[in-house]
Write a structure and sequence with these properties.
With 329 residues, the chain is an alpha+beta fold. The chain is 23% helix and 30% strand.
Amino acid sequence: MGRLMDWNDIVKQNAGSVPHFGEPREQYAAARSNSIVTPLRQFELLRFHGSDAKAFLQGQLTIDLDEVTSEQAQFGGYCNPKGRLIANFLLFVASSGYLMQVPREVAGDLATRLRKYVLRSQVSIEHERGQELLGLAGPQAVTLLEEKQSAPPSRRMAVGIRAHRSVIRLPGNQFVVVAASRDMSALWDELAERAVPAGEQCWAWLQIEAGIPWITQATREQFLPQMVRLDEIGGVSFNKGCFPGQEIVARTRYLGDVKRKLKLGHTRGEVQSGDALFSADQQTGTVLNAAPVPDAGCALLAVVSQPDTGQTRTADGESIVWSEAFQPD
């Protein structure tokens, strides 16, 4: 098993610190064949509440708020007027309002930007402090949740609620578990009895393999939703009406004018979000997300020009091997 760190020790670390859970090979092996549990400290929850919260979000986000219910979560995005993604997120309903899981490094800027458009609307945007997130993944994750009576949902993006916990099912045998901060220590101990505790990089690798994109500081306002596959995972509604950049996003869909697309790749080199990729000495792509894989280099999601004009390489000359498809649900 990975090293069982006390939950109170985890939360005492700085938000940007990565808890160390021991041997990465063991974590990745468990993610492939058993189950892992990880604190999702790289994300933050924003809470939207008030009588106008739904209407406000409906006018700002790429998704249809009618499809976000107590039983159904949605991926989505927030664009600038040119249709480029400022951030993307996972949105779901809680008793305290709408909760938005967003990468911590862009959460503050996103909240500040959205507050500018509240005006007279009865909506508050706050950093949620009363609830926290865990990630659970692997072939045995469903069985573990059933044993712990945590109601694993049967379909993708569905939400199960039991014993004051919410469980959201993501692609690729991945689950986000949401619970009150006061209950998180006991929940962590409970799940870590069976699942291998794992770090941020292992979770990032699983998300990459499943084709789940995340906009970071290095890639803000660069890509249309279709370029990062957000529409393919249910993160864009083309029927709900206006949102910032909606005209450009819609025109791109109906004219089929997407010259760059998200691809899953692997390289023996080291890459990080925002790195340029090259083919025939010209930049043909940008790394969206990357995660190291023990003894195998890096897995990555990259936005790449279409069609591919030849062998793609990193700035250090390491080749990229593209996968044919993302991990199935």
